[in-house]
Amino acid sequence: MSEQALNLQSLRDAWQSRWAAMAPRERRLLAAAAWLAGLTLVVMVGIRPAWRTLQQTPAQLREVDAQVDQMRRLADESAALRQRPPVPPAQAEAALKAATDRLGDGARLVLQPDRANLTLTDVSGDALASWLEEARVGARVRPLEAQLQQTRPGRYSGTLVLALASASANR
């Protein structure tokens, strides 16, 4: 036998002799304490985490359902935008210019045959969001690249590169 096995055997023998020397009342109390410790361990390790998960599940499901609903709305909106007829290049350019004029002096638009470059200097976030919405719906452009920095709270500077609808239809 190995040394560990001998040590285990000697511990077992010592425990059995001590157990035999205990009064029946002490044995019952020790057995009850062992059962109580085992039951506590089962509850803490097995039941409590599962119970916590069951309590959190309804809130998580509501959150996931809200996200799925939002994704469905965005998918429906995207499908509706795809089904619209393409905007003629002249009309798209006019819509982009009109939207850019509403941004004021902080925006400069450069049009190329297949894309548009918008340079922004200290433009408000709300104005930029409405410009993007107007450009997406009115001119049917899609962003290719955006490099924006927040200059101060709610104000942005940078550049946007957009694909014109006539160029994206060819892809």
Write up what this structure looks like.
The radius of gyration is 35 Å and the shape is rod-shaped. The termini are far apart. Helices cover 66% and strands 20% of the residues. It has helices at 3-21, 24-83, 89-103, 125-138, 165-169; strands at residues 107-111, 115-124, 142-152, 155-163. Mean pLDDT is 89; it is low at 167-171. The chain has a four-stranded antiparallel beta sheet. With 171 residues, it is of the alpha+beta class. Strand 1 (107-111) and strand 2 (115-124) form a beta hairpin.
Helix content: 55-70%
Mean pLDDT score, rounded? Answer: 89
Across the major sheet, the strand order is 1-2-4-3
Shape label: rod-shaped
- What is the rounded Rg? 35 Å
Low-confidence stretches: 167-171
Let me know the number of strands.
4
Largest sheet: 4 strands, antiparallel
The arrangement of helices and strands along the chain is HHHEEHEEH
Structural class: alpha+beta
| Percentage beta strand | 15-25%
Compact summary:
With 171 residues, this protein is α+β, with helices and mostly antiparallel strands. Helix content is 66%, strand content 20%. The C terminus is likely disordered.
Labels describing this entry:
rod-shaped, single chain, 171 residues, 66% helix, alpha+beta, 4-stranded antiparallel beta sheet
Question: How are the SSEs placed, and which strands pair?
Answer:
Elements lengths: L2 H19 L2 H60 L5 H15 L3 E5 L3 E10 H14 L3 E11 L2 E9 L1 H5 L2
Helix pairs in contact: 3-4
